Amino acid sequence: MTLSLIAEHLKENMDTLSKIVDCPPEIKIKFVAMSRRKQLLSDDFLISMANSSWSILDLPGSEVTDVGITKVAELCISLRALDMSRCKSITADGVSKLVQQCKALKIIRFGGCSLSEAWTH
Question: What SUPFAM superfamilies does UniProt report for this protein, alphabetically (predicted)?
Fold first, then answer.
């Protein structure tokens, strides 16, 4: 099955994809990107795909919450850059746990979410 075919039928394949364990990390990150673009990215799917080799993660506009971001922080300690712009359900608590776990993290984008409003006032 090609990635473009999976993307076409992503919604009906989310459960199946989340059970894929032996998939290369570069394919898993593509599944995450596809699900984000189709506004299907959830905590459960992100956690099922998370890989310790990921260094960059783009989540802008997704429905990921503190639960998802905290688990990703535990699993992806090599993260160097994270874009969580417009993620309305990630709070300062989630970011705090992320920063504590991911010592290599250098870039966090969080514009357009409740965090950016809280830290600019």
Answer: RNI-like
